[in-house]
Each structure stands twice: as C-alpha cells, then as structure tokens.
C-alpha cells in the first residue's frame, strides 16, 4: 500500500426522504487514507438523529452466532467489498489472489467494488433513512475521521472481531495499532488489514546521503533550490508530512499521540513549525508559489527529474514504482532519525450489511498467515503484515521473514525502531486550515 484525488470543499447535498442534509464533502484521496467512502461529515453532531430513522436489522443477529454457523451461512454466498481502488498493486492482490482464494476455500463469490466517495456516502445514508435492513455493502474499507463519523452516527454493524478465529489467534488485541484508528477506539468494529509508515523517497544518483533531521532537510533544500516540495495539506500524504513535522515540535515523543486534541495548546506551541515551513518555502519547487495537489503529482515531478525527492505513507510504495519503470532504478527510501508515523487500515461492516456472515469469513481469511505473507510480495501490493510475529508458528514466522520486499524497503527492525503512533483524526482538519492560513495565505 500504502496513495490522492481532486479536492472540492463544497457541501454535498444528500437527499434523504423528504429532507436534504448538508454534509461536508469528503476530500478525494488515495494513499493511506484510502477511506473516502464515508467522508468527513459532521461527526458527532447528531446528523442521523436529525435526518434518519430505521430499526436495527437482522444483520446484527449474526454477531451472536458461533463460527460454525457463520461459516455455514457464508458457504456459497456473494460478498461485496467496497474499498479504495487507486493502487494497481492492491487491485492485483485482490483480483489475482484474494478473490480466487476465497472462492476455492470458502465457496464465496467476492466482488471488489472501487469506492466512489459521494455515491457510497449517499447510498449508506439513504439506506439508513429508508430503514433498509439489507444494504448493498458487505465489507467497507474505512479509516480515521471517516471511521469516527460512521461510529458516532451509528452507521456500523457493531463489534465483531472477537468472532474471527484468526483475529484471536494472530492479532495483538491490546496493541494501540489494533485498538485505535487515528485516536478513535475501534471497540471490535474494525478488522485490521494492513499497516504502513511514512517515508521519504529519493534518487541516490542526485543525493549521496539523505538528510537525517528536519534541519538537515531544510538545509539540503536551501542548497538544492527547486528540488524538494511536498503535497498540499488537503492531500493525505501532504497532511501526513505536516503531522510528522508536528511530532517533531513535541519532541518526537510517542506519548504525544495519546494526548487529547487541544487546539489552544497547539496554537501556543506550533509557531516554530510554521516558521520552519515558511523559511523552507523559498527553496521549494517553483519557490513554493504552488504545491502538488496530490502525491501522484509529486511522483510525476520526481519521475521526470524535476525534483529529487518524493514521499509516501507506505514504506514499500517506491519498490513497485521502481519495478514498473515509473521511478528510476536509483531510487531508495529513508526515514528521519526522529521517527516515522504509522497507522493501520481496517475493514468493517455497515449497519445493514447484506451478508455479514460472508463478510466475516472474508475478513478472517485476510488475517491468515498465507494472505498476509502474499500481501507482502513486492510484485503485488508489497504491504506490511498486521499479524503479531510472536503469535505465529515458527514455520509461518520463517516464511514471513523470508519475503524479500525489495532493496528500497527499510528492514522491519528499522521500521519498528522508527515507529510513532498516528495522531488523533482532529489534527488532520486543523492542519489543513492552519497550513492554508499560515503558509499559503501570507
């Protein structure tokens, strides 16, 4: 994994029954957000209480069944999985490995449905208002502020991970990587799929030794004007770049992630961050007069040689781009000494999943060592496993360690040592607004 689309900050009018609900429109994205299905929409403001109705559906009854009954119900069924479709490696993994495997092993016909943000959001809200107890989505890729909004507005089926045998066998259920999604408690409502960390990507022909610190990065940009930039803050990767820098303002202490979002404290303590970005601006590509709208746009600048670095919220993303010829063979990856933020992305079920039994069987399959090891293959998706190595058999652990993820991917030891937990989802919107006010507008 782990990847961004056009921005539109207008309001999305969702017509539900005889009412029109005004929602904040989701920003398009790829990258590790990859969660645009529900958007960032008035989380916690009682949206659904104001413009929806409907009784609990029969889908929740499957949360009380035992695994034998769930498996039997899933046999021979159809499952629709709504997920981000903007990565060729991810799509290849799903289409060429997962879909055939679940058909062979579980007699399930799995359909991958690429997400359209507005359509998926409107569909889910419309079904909620109409009281439809059998919806069109069985599995949903969901993360961050979108998960928070869906949870607070009761759009999810409920807690189910304790039903998944492989979750219980291979996942550290007490780890913050599992229990929190951008600061929001998952409470068993999401099954982990993969995890990623933020890294910089550079051309070794142009840079002998990449920077180790933020100050060295600023100095390198000053010495090499026009060869560095970052995506704007509304892009997921650009926002992650800012969150990484924000961590530095708080001493790169992992405890920062556990603190409640405090806007007043941020306003008082982040002036050095904005000073840094404004000082950096004159050394950026086009002198910071414009910023790439997405990480894909930054990648194009890098592949054409206009800049010497790009970045991404996926430590393995450079490898597939090297292999398909998009990036030069001299491309490598680095992390700053201060650390690398990481997060887990998840799968869930909507409140009215039409086939919850089939959905749970598919999500359990995706937590099998075989599926997670295949996911690490750099010729496909190349993404990190969510399984706890300490809970694997010796054979599976050796098989996982034997995967050659490619020369550009940092070692697991390097990744583990650099790991910093992701911040609360509230930081994302705050950084978008502040970056525009403090960096773009002046």
From TrEMBL:
Pfam families: SBP_bac_8. SUPFAM superfamilies: Periplasmic binding protein-like II. It comes from the Bacteria. InterPro entries: SBP, YnjB. This is Putative spermidine/putrescine transport system substrate-binding protein.
